[in-house]
Please model this.
Amino acid sequence: MLDSDLALMRAAAAGAVPPEIVVAEARLRAAQLAADVAALDALISDDLLFTGPDGQLGTKAADLAAHGSGVVRFREHVPEELRARAVGADVVVTALRARLAVEVGGRLVRGTYRYTRVWAREGRGAWRVVGGHVSEVPAAGLDPRDAGGTAA
Model:
C-alpha cells in the first residue's frame, strides 16, 4: 500500500472512522487494484459471507481465484465517502461509496458503487472482512424508490 492509497481513504472518511479501519480499507483498495491475491487473502476471512451486485453469494476462494486469473481486474477505484459504525471492540461496519471501473470477463463496467463491509478482528487481532455487500448507486437525481430500493 502506498501513502497515496491511505491519503485517498483518509480524505473519503466522514465522521469518526477508526484509524485502523481507514488503513484496512486502504489496504483492501490497493490489493484490489494490484490484483494482489496474497494481500487479499490476508484481508478476507476464510468464512466470508458476501453478496455481489448481482445478488449472488460469493466466497473468499472464488474472489481470490477471480483476481488471480484476471477474470476480475479493478482498473479504477476512487473512494468518495467512507462511514463506519463500531458494533463493539472487535467489529466495525463500514459503508464505502466509490467510483469504479472493473473489467469482468473482458467487459469493462463503470459506475458508482457502495460496499457495506463487516470488519472483525480475527486470529492475531488482524482486521478482516467477514461479510458484506456491494450494489450500484443510482445515478444522481434518480429516486431510489423508483429503482426498487428500500429504506431498511
Remarks:
- Residues 19-34 form the longest helix (16 residues).
- The helical segments are 3-12, 19-34, 37-43, 60-69.
